[in-house]
Amino acid sequence: MVPSRFPKVALLSLLLTYFSSYAYTAPDSLQQKDYKYLFTRIRATKANPVLQDLYLKAFLKNAKDSGDWEMIMHGYKNYADFSEEMRAVMYSDSMVYAARQLGDGKLIGAAYLSKGIVYYDFKRHEMALENYLLARPYIEKEGDDYLTYKLKYNIAHVKYYLGKNSEAILLFNACLDYFKENNTRAYLNTLHSLGLCYNRAGNYGKSEQLVDLGLAEASRLGDHSMDCYFLHLDGQNDYFLKNYSLSIEKLQEAIPGVAENDDYANIAVANFYIGKSYWAIKRFREGLPYLHLVADAFDQKEYIRPDLRENFELLINYYKDKGDSKKVLYYVDRLLSADSLLTQRHDRLYDTIHKNYDTRELFQEKKDIELQFKREQSYGKIWQTGSVVLSIIVVVLVVAHIVDRKRRDQVFRELMENKKPKQKAVKAIPKELPIPQETVTKVLARLEKWEQAMRYLDVNITRASMAVYLDTNVHYVSDIILHYRGKSFTEYINDLKVDYIIEQLKTDRHKRMFTHDALAEEAGFSTTQRFVQAFKSRTTLSPTFFSAKIRKEMAEG
């Protein structure tokens, strides 16, 4: 289901950008230019931000002057494509708002899809997926082939990020023939993406075949924009095939082309596999600067993915061998931060990571290093006391985390076995009701029908509306529900909604990809916050944990 409410932040960002653009007066020469000319100049002046900004402003200003909402939408998309993260998100909000003013399903779907791509480009994968799912019903309804395959392609990338390689391969293959005939760059991107999936799945031979095909097709089509990425992937394949010198050579050659696209993520990946290749041939001193660059990418951009986690383990072991306790402690802290970030982004993904350091051993090692470092440096009593307190806090937190994890796993298992959550104690329930039995019987019969019809999914349920449906008064409604259901009115409604969502997540794989916003609307909660609070109150689990856990269970099953 697609929320009908438009985020307030989008309206605010639209107003800010809208009025700021009116403060700008385009040169007469640009006011007379058509949109095609301005769009071409925007693309051509990427290397000159000051000049590019003139064309961006002229495009948007001309669109607003003519009152053309479709071109206003494209004007904001231009800005989103060439802005840093915060502004890009604001402009994409305004882009969606402009599309909704037109009421055109195709443009609304395209706007949500473009907004998702903005989030994906900045590695905010969950927000990207949320917008892809918002785009899907519009795109499916309109039946536009290009948007349909573009959506499949981008959802495939999310599946690749989650490690669902077989599902991603199916989606990429579904896009391949269409893009081959209709969009050269998208076709080359898809070949490269398939190569990435096969690399991740361990089929390096197939990945190499796709690299060769991609480069051959790039030459045939006269489009070499993806050559550096095919070379980048080829270097990764060589690493896994133990061709370490070739891996170093190809990845070093690929980096300048990747850097031209400001692609810090793939630069970090290249540096990681160059560093690992040097490590594999025992040339540690040459590999060390590359591992430091990967760590810098995490510090500066918070970029991390499961395979890059090993970067910190290599640095920890290197400095441990050198006896540099200070740097060992530093990279242990960075590793813990990386683990925390991976956990926040995706529980299922985090659980599948093969770690040489599990959390308890890592904290214990940190404690030992701190004690050793304290002795070596002969710090004062303040540092010693602080270190002991810190160690105690760490131990308590780790134990608490382990206990809570076991509790959540037990609750999850009971829910999957259709055991209802334990009911909370409520205020004393009267043994007898001061209501005629005939009335009670009538109300309970109507209540059963109301539950069977799932009218609890209505977003506007009140005691008054229930009283009208049950043909009684509001006081009887509350008293009968408390007596026969053992819950207050609000808890009774919320629990029915949450139980419905739990069942949907267990039986409908598509809904497991829903965001909190979409699930809240599906169940009829007035706000996402109320949904999350009700879910936790009913199950003691967060919706995020339950969804991630069930996805993992289904994937492993």
From TrEMBL:
N-terminal signal peptide: 1-25
InterPro entries given in the database record: HTH_AraC, TPR-like_helical_dom_sf, TPR_rpt
Domain HTH araC/xylS-type: 441-549
SUPFAM superfamilies in alphabetical order: TPR-like
Gene3D superfamilies, A to Z: Homeodomain-like, Tetratricopeptide repeat domain
PROSITE patterns: HTH_ARAC_FAMILY_2
TM regions (residue ranges): 382-403
UniProt keyword terms in alphabetical order: DNA-binding, Membrane, Signal, Transmembrane, Transmembrane helix
An example Gene Ontology molecular-function term: sequence-specific DNA binding
Protein name: HTH araC/xylS-type domain-containing protein
